[in-house]
Design a protein that fits this description.
Length: 114
């Protein structure tokens, strides 16, 4: 398992903790529930950490609707973890076609290099 330091060094941009309601509209395989409610709990310029009730396959593509802005972007699932506190899943996702302000919040620029 990667250490927290190694994960931070690999991260391309800083995350901010936030709660943004989203809907997962399905992926390339279309085996995800259509319009499944979810929540972005951390976001960055290059991705997010989503909390949802189902677990898509690692590497699958999903569409995420930002409920606040009604904008949709495609993401790739790069990590799936079962929550330790309930039956939900936490998905690490990478945005495939970045938008300047998909999340509707001010995000810090890229991380500093050592």
């Amino acid at each position: 398992m990667a250490t927290a330091r190694a994960m931070l060094e690999r991260r391309r941009s800083r995350r901010i903790l936030i709660r943004i309601p989203v809907r997962i509209l399905g992926g390339a395989a279309h085996d995800e529930p259509l319009g499944a409610p979810a929540e972005a709990i951390a976001v960055s310029q290059t991705g997010a950490l989503l909390r949802t009730a189902f677990s898509p396959a690692l590497g699958s593509r999903i569409e995420v609707l930002n409920v606040r802005s009604q904008e949709i972007r495609e993401f790739r699932v790069i990590r799936v973890n079962r929550s330790a506190t309930d039956a939900s899943f936490e998905l690490g996702v990478e945005i495939l076609h970045p938008a300047r302000n998909f999340w509707g919040v001010s995000l810090p620029d890229h991380t500093r290099t050592a």
